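Field reference: sequence -> structure
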Amino acid sequence: MKRLSIAIAGCGPAGLAAAILLDAQGHEITIFDQFDEPGPVGSGLMIQPSGMAVLDRLGLAAETLARGARVDALLGLEEHGKAVLDAPYSKLGVPGAFGIGIHRASLFGVLLEAAQRRGIAIETGHAVTGSTLDAAGRRLTFDTREPTAAFDLVIDATGWRTVFDSEPKGVLEFGALWASLPTLPGDPFAGNLLEQRYRRAAQMVGVLPIGTRKGETGPEVAFFWSLKRADYAAWADTPLDQWKDQVRALWPDTGVLLDRIERREQLTFAIYAHHTQNPPTRERMIAIGDAWHSASPQLGQGANMALLDAWGLARGIEEGRTLDEKLRLAVSWRRDHVWLYQWVTRLFTPLYQSDTDWHPAIRDRLLAPLSQIWPTSRIQAQLMSGLFGFPLGPLGLTVPDYEALSASASRS
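Structure field:
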């Protein structure tokens, strides 16, 4: 296979995973990132069995589990205490399967350290503004430096705000406030559940265990509160204690966490978009992860889809005969799964984030009871785990051996 010079714009999970996989194939890789030091943005996320299939093949599954927290189910209650989301991984039919709640910094650290062990070049401190194409290849352009030399291939892993796609990004009405907070013995949370509480679909508060970050002394949880973008300015002008009272009214147990939020700066407001770059390829260029397809985080698939994209790209580059064929194969193995989750996420998000009364009524009175009955319970587990639509087979992947992974973690 010809050795390619490859530029990767973006140093998130998609970019780092692609860099590791392509470097292992012998290609010359350079990552470009706008930050002075590469780092994660945000608080917690879920690593699902789909994403773990990639991390397992990278040899990073055990380290990911060690830095994260095992999650055995998703549990959501409406304001009066009725369970309207009860989705255990045991319904998946994969022995011992579970999800992993993890701080973005922890996942980033696992991948960055693997990239550094391989000696992959990372250039920081310059925002990518676009690219140019000439006979020698594709060059990245920047805001404060000269364009790069020509590369055989540019990979866009810059996220949904990508500058490489001028189409409207479909910014969603609801965002979320996030905080990473220490958890203490006696805190009234299960520890192995992603727990959420809903007031209809207009308000949602959640707690996700995210393990212990490297260098930290104890475990943390990701606390999140849904908030409309249009309401953020009003929230910023509202006394913090007044907002805390609103959260406690929905879920009193969160009081112990709210007491640990002493400054508004501890909370980060995240904005999301539902967008697909179509097609995700152009001459000597391909988009992966959120740069290709972004969606609401309601199904928790962002990082997992990015890992699958990176694996599919590496496999396409390995098997294709020409560069065009390599990129075509990479997209073909991922297109159906991407389309499916874009459609399902668009359908399900209003059930949990909207101002209507009929969306939560459908959730509570129809979907919640059905989700406890086979085969709907199995389908729900597949959706949650990222395995709906059978994405692993075309990529030559299988779910990891969770029982062996758990046994290894218990011995360490």
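Note: The chain has one domain: 5-168+273-411.
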